[in-house]
UniProtKB/TrEMBL annotation:
Alphabetic keyword roster: Coiled coil
Coiled-coil zones: 42-76
Domain of life from the UniProt record: Eukaryota
Protein name: Hydroxyproline-rich glycoprotein family protein
Region (Disordered): 1-29
Length: 103
C-alpha cells in the first residue's frame, strides 16, 4: 500500500511538472509575442519620428526658398526704383538745362 501511494505521488509530480513546463513555455511564448509587438511599435514610432523630421526639414527649406525669393523681389523692386529715380533726376536736370538756355 505504501508503494502504491508512492507511485501515485510520483505520477502527480510528473503531471505537475509537465503542467508547470507548459505554463512556463506558454509564458515564454507570450513574452516573445509581447516583445515582438513592442519592437514593431517602437520601430513604427521611430519611422514616424524620422518622417516628421524629414517633413520639418523640407518645410524649413521651402520657407528659406520663399524668403530668398521675396528678398530677390524686393531687391529687384529697389533696383527698379533707383533706376526710375535716376531717370527722373536726369530728366529734371535736362529740363533745367533747357530752360536756362531758353530762358
Amino acid at each position: 500500500r505504501s508503494e502504491s501511494s508512492g507511485t501515485e505521488h510520483s505520477e502527480d509530480d510528473d503531471d505537475g511538472s509537465e503542467s508547470k513546463r507548459r505554463k512556463v513555455k506558454n509564458l515564454g511564448s507570450r513574452i516573445m509575442q509581447s516583445a515582438s509587438v513592442l519592437a514593431r511599435a517602437l520601430r513604427s514610432c521611430e519611422e514616424k519620428k524620422e518622417k516628421r523630421h524629414r517633413e520639418m526639414i523640407e518645410l524649413e527649406q521651402r520657407r528659406i526658398q520663399m524668403e530668398e525669393a521675396r528678398n530677390e523681389v524686393h531687391r529687384q523692386g529697389i533696383a527698379t526704383l533707383v533706376a526710375a529715380v535716376t531717370n527722373l533726376s536726369g530728366a529734371i536736370e535736362s529740363l533745367i538745362n533747357n530752360s536756362e538756355r531758353h530762358g
